[in-house]
Input
Amino acid sequence: MGKKQVRPPRALPPVPSAIQDDIPLSRPKKKKPRTKTPLASASSEGLVQTAVHRPPEGSEPPTKDSIEHQEAPVQRRQKKTRLPLELETTLTQKKTASPSLLPNENGINVEPDEEPVIQKPRRKTKKTQPAELHYANELGVEDEDIITDEQSSPEQQSVFTAPTGISQPVGKVFVEKSRRFQAADRAELIKTTEKIDVSMDMKPSWTTRDVALSVHRAFRMIGVFSHGFLAGCAVWNIVVIYVLAGDELSDLSNLLQQYKTLAYPFQSLLYLLLALSTVSAFDRIDFAKTSVAIRNFLALDPRALASFLYFTALVLSLSQQMTSDRIHLYTPSSVNGSLWAEGIEEQVLQPWIVVNLVVAVLVGLSWLFLSYRPGMDLSEELMFSSDVEEYPDKGIKVSS
Amino acid sequence: MLQTSNYSLVLSLQFLLLSYDLFVNSFSELLRMAPVIQLVLFIIQDIAILFNIIIIFLMFFNTFVFQAGLVNLLFHKFKGTIILTAVYFALSISLHVWVMNLRWKNSNCFVWTDGLQTLFVFQRLAAVLYCYFYKRTAVRLGDPRFYQDSLWLRMEFMQVRR
Output
């Protein structure tokens, strides 16, 4: 109660007035027509008065208020203009949103008066906005106080204390958004704040282990992509080589001339993809645990086989680096300082083509092995859910 | 206790350095228009490896296991990574020195010998293994068990002592 009597300052909210300074330019005309109609103007004035002069007149009956409205025109005009603005901006929304709530709070106090009073509730809620905003910050605590106030006050002090008990129980809270106050459900606000609390509580569950696990899974995705891409690239490469070389490798000089710009870039790309694929395949068998890896390999586990094939392909591919560079620097044998002496072509290219073919086959096979069960990942099982027996709670969390 | 945000940051830095390493290993042979380009790439690559070594050791120091004085346990668990990283670092530097030495005058000439080819293959293979082991270690160090006393830690300690 004491709090409510302190409210008077609220009646002249400094912030809204600043807002109004900007707004009037666009909207004043709309408001004036409204205020000019006798009923409406009287009501609005009345509202203003009760709201604004509440503190000093706290004990006076409402009828006096209406008399005063007529006596003090100037100040009221100013306030009048202010209030409509507020109405437009905030209360219009409020009307639509919470028609039932407003009557509840004010209805009891105001009913003795006539029609205009019905609007009163809206005004008052406006006036209470600053307070409500304040409460919005401390929703949990204030709500309890509000309920008790409402129950005790309304019937006993029906006429006189209109402003005091009324404003509190509003279901709406006015939140300032982009320089306007907008109605929001108190219940919703509480919910959102609760949600925030909940999320704060949940955060700790996102542990470093989860980060590691998500990174591991992300890398596995990259690995799955690189397996397929590598297989496709290798097959494409070998097809291009055989097409360029002609029937039974009869046109090797043509192959060299055409392929020399491609040789080194492809070698680089092959290494990149092979490295990614090999690491990814190692991940799947948890290569670091040698005993497990060897056991899996001996058991002809597809993942272990794929890892072995990838590693072999990597070694073979790397061993052709020198030849690739030689192809890259190809100049016809007639040119001075050529690396390609007459007749050496077939001797150099034959093994190179065979190795490329083998690499393509190995890579294709590995891809088949791995794509047979793309979801299987031994290192995830071993690294992240090991010792489940010792830590049943953690183990469950991780395995899920 | 290791903070999730800190760990994420460190992990992303490690992966950044690893991917740079992979990139240079893959495409340095292509980017040899001028010897200086390769030189800079190689220097940064070596520094990246060095940084990665420093980071992984800092992560070790940050574990409860290390702070409790169980260095041997840590070394036992991650000796593969430590040794391999050191070997890879040595191989990288030697290959870089050799290649730059051969190519400094003319970056576009054929410099390959059997020795260089062998070193090249070993260095690149070590790079793949290093990438795998380092990644695995970095991910494993996210395990909260390394940052608190636990039954698991005690049992591990007993195993190592035996």
In short: Chain B has a mean pLDDT of 91.
